[in-house]
Design brief:
The chain is mainly alpha-helical. It is about 55% helix and about 5% strand. The chain has 6 helices and 2 strands, in the order E-E-H-H-H-H-H-H. Strands 1-2 form a two-stranded antiparallel ribbon. A hairpin with a 6-residue loop joins strand 1 and strand 2. The N terminus is likely disordered.
Length: about 180
């Protein structure tokens, strides 16, 4: 399948959401009292069933873990599904949380707890991508959307600064060898 004309910022064929990346305004605000990330806007794009998650941006990491665990169970049972794309999709959202945390709460990011968060994020990304790639390589994944997202993340065909920033963030938390092994760039 040729991906050269695909732009993940303007095209979405997902059955779960009609939104495109440019619609996912993952902007964060800080709680002025605690200096913590207080709110993520447009979280309904990821979880359209409820608005309650709007004030809990780390919920995305719960979903990421659930998709990864679902993939591993599906692989064990040799079940075909489009849900194998979930870890790929949520790896992007999870990196966005890490990027926002670094930018908007650098005190936390550079603290001992921030180091634990970075370790958790790195391990989650590796585990999720391994599950996505294993399902894909075993012919169990029917998610062409996830393949397009991975292609865009790996190759950045339109030189999108947001993708470049995400690639650089991945290299920052995992190093170039890890990023090449996990993501392919």
């Amino acid at each position: 399948m040729a991906y050269s004309n695909y732009d993940a910022t303007t095209t979405n064929k997902s059955k779960r959401s009609n939104r495109i990346y440019s619609d996912l305004n993952l902007s964060f605000t800080k709680n002025p009292a605690t200096k913590d990330v207080a709110k993520v806007f447009d979280i309904q794009a990821i979880n359209p069933h409820t608005g309650e998650q709007m004030y809990r941006p780390l919920y995305i990491l719960n979903e990421f873990t659930a998709y990864t665990n679902g993939n591993l169970a599906g692989i064990e049972n040799k079940q075909r599904s489009e849900l194998y794309g979930g870890p790929m999709e949520f790896s992007v959202y999870s990196m966005a949380i890490g990027m926002a945390t670094e930018q908007y709460d650098n005190d936390y990011w550079t603290s001992a707890n921030g180091a634990k968060f970075r370790t958790f994020l790195k391990l989650s990304l590796e585990r999720g991508m391994d599950a996505y790639k294993q399902g894909r390589n075993e012919g169990l994944s029917t998610s062409t959307q996830a393949d397009r997202i991975w292609h865009s993340l790996k190759n950045n065909p339109n030189n999108d600064i947001r993708i470049t920033n995400m690639q650089n963030f991945a290299r920052k938390i995992g190093g170039p060898d890890w990023t090449k092994r996990v993501f392919g760039f």
